[in-house]
Amino acid sequence: MNRVFVRVLIFTLLLACLCSAASAQEKVASQAAPNKVSFRLKGLDGKFYDTAEMRGDVWVVSFGATWCVPCTWEQVAVEELKVEYAGKPVKFLWVTIEDKKQTTDNIIRHYVKERRMTVPVLRDPGGEALAQFTTGTRIPITAFFGKDGSFDAPAHKGMPSDITVYKQLVRNRINALLKAHTDKVETAKARAKHH
């Protein structure tokens, strides 16, 4: 009986070690790609927008809702910034988190038309894309993606009462991402020149 007990004990210890090693590998993998955020959402224009295809431009992705007053002011700022960055590699998206049963596409289209929004509007009715940027429900949330397609953490939460403060915050993030890309390109050119 002691041999059986010893074998069971050894088997249990081996199993615990294997589980611990697997857990450690998962933890290392999740730490290796902290900016690995992805979503594929359908826009009101019928197109799908996929973060895997967001390369070559800086992307500013705002999450909001038609009933959210700060989101409306944020959209005013986004439209002004879109004009300001016209001709530059910067794109803007607006993602509504509203359920399709409560807020139909037609209601969203009316909202967009009434506010003269020109940025693509996407739907995230289950909030799965939004959940990658926040654990709470406070909106608007603004996520920034670099030209290489990676999420530039952290996402910005909320909307200051002064629209100019918000626009400057967004400008600072966009300009930093544009500069980071330019710096990478120049470094690569310098390395190539020396080899």
What would the principal axes of the Cα set say about the shape?
globular
Strand order within the widest sheet?
5-4-3-6-7
Question: How would you classify the helix and strand content by structural class?
Answer: alpha/beta
Whole-number count of domains: 1
Helix content: 40-55%
**H/E topology pattern:** HEEEHEHEEEH
CATH topology: Glutaredoxin
Question: Any overview of this molecule?
Answer:
46% of the residues lie in helices and 15% in strands. About 12% of the residues have low confidence. Helix 2 packs across helix 4. The chain starts with a helix and ends with a helix. Strand 1 and strand 2 form a beta hairpin. It is built from four helices and seven strands; from the N terminus they run H-E-E-E-H-E-H-E-E-E-H. The strands form two sheets. A five-stranded mixed β-sheet has the order 5-4-3-6-7, with helices on one face. The protein is α/β, with parallel strands linked by helices. The radius of gyration is 23 Å and the shape is globular. It has one domain: 3-Layer(aba) Sandwich (Glutaredoxin).
In short:
The protein is α/β, with parallel strands linked by helices and 195 residues long. It has helices spanning 2-32, 69-84, 105-114, 163-194; strands spanning 40-42, 48-50, 58-64, 90-96, 121-123, 141-145, 156-157.
Question: Key features?
Answer:
195 residues; alpha/beta; Glutaredoxin; 5-stranded mixed sheet; two-stranded antiparallel sheet
